[in-house]
Design goal:
Elements: H1 5-18, H2 20-24, H3 27-33, H4 40-44, E1 49-50, E2 53-54, H5 56-71, H6 93-104, H7 107-111, H8 115-143
Antiparallel strand pairs: 1-2
Length: 144
């Protein structure tokens, strides 16, 4: 019997979960030995119960094994959720630090009256305005 690495991996995962004895007596192995490779994903789906109850964890595992067998890649179920970080509040230190740092550059305006100080102060004010705009936009996107 010629198996790809992915197919072998799917069978190893299945055998590890159900046990060698159960696998040796399974219809899955009998059909596989007859060369009915297309039947393996269907046969895997029959093994989703423990103590007579259907377990969602076993359903997910069999879907992943069937996907590995048929497609050569991990297939996730529809029930997996993506974890997201909680949005940072507007008045948290992480949000205010860049803005406060930008305003600290305005000290150059108060320290002198030369054209360089005025130019730097203007750049700092513009940068602070752009920073406030992007921070506000980011917070608005996270709240939607």
């Amino acid at each position: 019997m010629n198996l790809s690495d992915e197919q072998f991996g799917a069978l190893v995962s299945f055998c590890y979960n159900v046990g060698i004895a159960a696998f040796q007596n399974s219809t899955l192995l009998k059909r596989l030995n007859r060369g009915d490779y297309e039947a393996v994903p269907t046969e895997l789906q029959k093994w989703t119960k423990a103590s007579g109850k259907r377990l969602q964890g076993l359903v997910h595992r069999r879907v992943a094994e069937a996907g590995l067998w048929a497609k050569g890649a991990y297939v996730s179920s529809n029930y997996q959720t993506v974890e997201m970080q909680a949005p940072t509040g507007v008045f948290k230190a992480e949000a205010l630090a860049p803005i406060i740092g930008s305003f600290s550059g305005l000290g150059g305006l108060l320290a002198g009256n030369g054209p360089i100080q005025w130019a730097l102060a203007t750049i700092m004010v513009l940068a602070a305005c752009v920073g406030v705009f992007f921070v506000a936009k980011r917070f608005q996107e996270h709240r939607l």
